[in-house]
């Protein structure tokens, strides 16, 4: 009997997702647990596995946004009749413009084709431009929009080869490969570019807005990184071929995890006037990707060796930048480290990552003059800036925690 494949709930609070790409085509053989398609949620783009084995009889949703629980495909035996989808109640439609990647509510197919045909007759110019939605936006897949943004291609100038003239990724790539005519001299359009927020940027905006509602304070210290750099160089020398070389960021993760166990008040969440303290340090790393900032988590970092932390960090960063993170990679963080030192930033303030009660901002390591026993010396110094939620932490507790992190960095053996 044919099995309907429905969009699963991939994380707490998920109500919908955007089907980005199918990894199988209709007629292909599929095994249960095999990656079937990619879906874009508010936080990540991840592969979804097949719920059953058989032949992919029908793809019900080629791409676009669908609610959790809606059928996106049917798997059964070859030649088996595909059950007709039950008509869904047509929702009330407001006047708000359609969000990027969304699909129109399910309607009777003939009626829909008729409406589109009427619209085409009324609006067709001598040279048909790219088809647009009701609010004037060009019809294009989410992936096509993303590629066009990255490569500076105007979707309105393309002709789509997808269903109903929809622009797909191949159309954008084909346009980029075509020779570009020289621009006319002094041609100035003056038109502003309007870009709709992607799901992940909407999530970032919502979470940062929530973060600014918290009464936070910041404190800073500088750490002498002489010993930390010496340890890192020694560990690199001992790293075997094929293993990941530890970085200063890995040392910071280890030092932070060890300090969190000594100061459990900082290893906590604040929600609904309730504090939850955790027995293990799940340290999140702020990672910049072309889709926005994500914070994958290294779980129980206090129990891991530096080599294990380095391997976990390399895996998470690579998958983050290739849009291969799973929802579980982003969950259960108890503390976050944000490092902009590699960009030459000397010091900055990181925004709180609710419901966590603290976040640590790391600056660049710089040679600076310091006073040692009454004499000037030059040391590799690094700034540490802690942003803390005052509802959960007092200044003294935050200061003691930051001091412990500094101690562990200046004498790394204390944290190992």
Brief descriptors of the model:
single chain; 416 residues; alpha+beta; six-stranded mixed sheet; four-stranded antiparallel sheet; 26% helix; 25% strand; elongated
Can you put this structure into words, describing what you see?
The structure is a single chain. This protein has helices spanning 109-123, 142-151, 169-177, 199-212, 226-238, 248-262, 306-321, 395-410, and strands at residues 3-6, 16-22, 29-30, 35-40, 45-49, 54-59, 64-67, 71-76, 216-224, 268-271, 274-277, 283-285, 287-289, 292-294, 297-298, 335-339, 358-372, 375-389. The protein has a 6-stranded mixed sheet with strand order 9-18-17-16-12-15. A 4-stranded antiparallel sheet has the order 1-8-6-3, with no helix packed on it. It is 26% helix and 25% strand. Mean pLDDT is 82; it is low at 87-127. The chain is built from 8 helices and 18 strands.
Helix share, percent: 25-40%
Count of helical stretches: 8
Sheet with the most strands, sense and barrel status: 6 strands, mixed
Low confidence ranges: 87-127
Percent strand: 15-25%
Strands across the major sheet, in which order?
9-18-17-16-12-15
The helix/strand series, from N terminus to C terminus, equals: EEEEEEEEHHHHEHHEEEEEEHEEEH
Mean pLDDT across the residues is: 82
| Principal-axes shape call | elongated
Question: How far is the first residue's CA from the last residue's CA?
Answer: 57 Å
Radius of gyration: 26 Å
> Which structural category fits the helices and strands?
alpha+beta
Q: Quaternary status of these chains? A: single chain
Compute the number of strand runs.
Answer: 18
């Amino acid at each position: 009997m044919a099995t309907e494949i429905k969009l699963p709930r991939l994380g707490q609070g998920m109500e919908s997702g955007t089907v980005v790409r199918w990894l199988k085509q209709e007629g292909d053989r599929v095994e249960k647990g095999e990656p079937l398609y990619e879906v874009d949620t508010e936080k990540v783009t991840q592969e979804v596995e097949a719920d059953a084995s058989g032949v992919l009889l029908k793809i019900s949703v080629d791409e676009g946004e669908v609610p959790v629980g809606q059928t996106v495909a049917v798997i059964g035996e070859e030649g088996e009749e595909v059950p007709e989808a039950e008509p869904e109640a047509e929702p009330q439609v407001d006047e708000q413009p359609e969000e990027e990647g969304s699909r129109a509510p399910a309607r009777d197919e003939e009626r829909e084709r008729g409406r589109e045909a009427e619209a085409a007759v009324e609006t067709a110019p001598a040279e048909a431009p790219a088809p647009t939605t009701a609010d004037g936006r060009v019809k294009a897949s989410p992936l096509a929009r993303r590629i066009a943004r990255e490569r500076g291609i105007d979707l309105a100038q393309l002709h789509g080869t997808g269903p109903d003239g929809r622009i797909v990724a191949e159309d954008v790539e084909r346009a980029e490969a075509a020779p570009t005519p020289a621009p006319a001299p002094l041609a100035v359009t003056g038109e502003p570019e309007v870009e709709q927020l992607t799901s992940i940027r909407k999530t970032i905006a919502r979470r940062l807005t929530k973060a600014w509602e918290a009464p936070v304070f910041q404190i800073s210290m500088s750490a002498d990184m002489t010993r930390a750099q010496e340890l890192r160089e020694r560990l690199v020398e001992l790293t075997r071929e094929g293993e990941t070389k530890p970085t200063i960021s890995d040392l910071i993760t280890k030092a932070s995890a060890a300090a969190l166990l000594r100061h459990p008040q900082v290893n906590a969440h604040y929600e609904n006037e309730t504090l939850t303290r955790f027995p293990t340090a799940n340290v999140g790393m702020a990672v910049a990707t072309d889709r926005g900032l994500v914070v994958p988590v290294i779980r129980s970092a206090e129990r891991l060796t530096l080599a294990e932390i380095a391997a976990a960090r390399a895996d998470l960063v690579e998958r983050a930048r290739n849009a291969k993170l799973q929802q579980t990679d982003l969950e259960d963080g108890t503390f976050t480290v944000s490092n902009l030192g590699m960009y030459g930033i000397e010091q900055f303030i990181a925004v709180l990552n609710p419901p966590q009660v603290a976040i640590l901002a790391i600056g660049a390591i710089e040679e600076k003059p310091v006073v040692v026993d009454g004499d000037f010396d030059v040391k590799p110094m690094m700034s540490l800036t802690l942003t803390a939620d005052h509802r959960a932490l007092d200044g003294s507790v935050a200061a003691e925690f930051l001091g412990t992190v500094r101690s562990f960095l200046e004498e790394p053996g204390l944290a190992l």
